[in-house]
Amino acid sequence: MAQSGVSQEVRMQITGHASEAVNDMYTHFDTEMIRNAVQQGIPEIKWQNAP
After folding, report:
1. CA separation for the pair 45, 25 (Å, rounded)
2. CA–CA separation, 5 vs 41, rounded Å?
3. What is the dihedral of CA 36, 43, 20, 15, to 10 degrees?
4. Whole-angstrom distance, CA of residue 13 vs CA of residue 17
5. What is the spatial distance between Cα 38 and Cα 43, in angstroms, rounded to a whole number?
6. Max Cα separation, the chain?
7. Tens digit of each residue's pLDDT (9 = 90 or more) over 16-32
8. 49: how many CB neighbours lie within 10 A of its CB?
9. Which segments of the chain does DSSP mark as H helices, in order?
10. Which positions ≥6 away from 6 have C-beta within 8 Å?
11. Backbone angles phi, psi at 25, to 5 degrees
12. Global pTM value
């Protein structure tokens, strides 16, 4: 859900997590999403050697 842009508050309601800490523990992002986020914030990084 996080990768689809669903807010943390909505994800917590859907999953029944009572705290952000628990919700964060079960929230995982794939490598491509992390790479894209970093490139948007730090465009000078080159990912030629990235897995």
Report:
1. 28
2. 17
3. -10
4. 7
5. 7
6. 40
7. 999 999 999 988 888 88
8. 5
9. 8-15, 20-25, 31-41
10. 14
11. -60, -30
12. 0.56
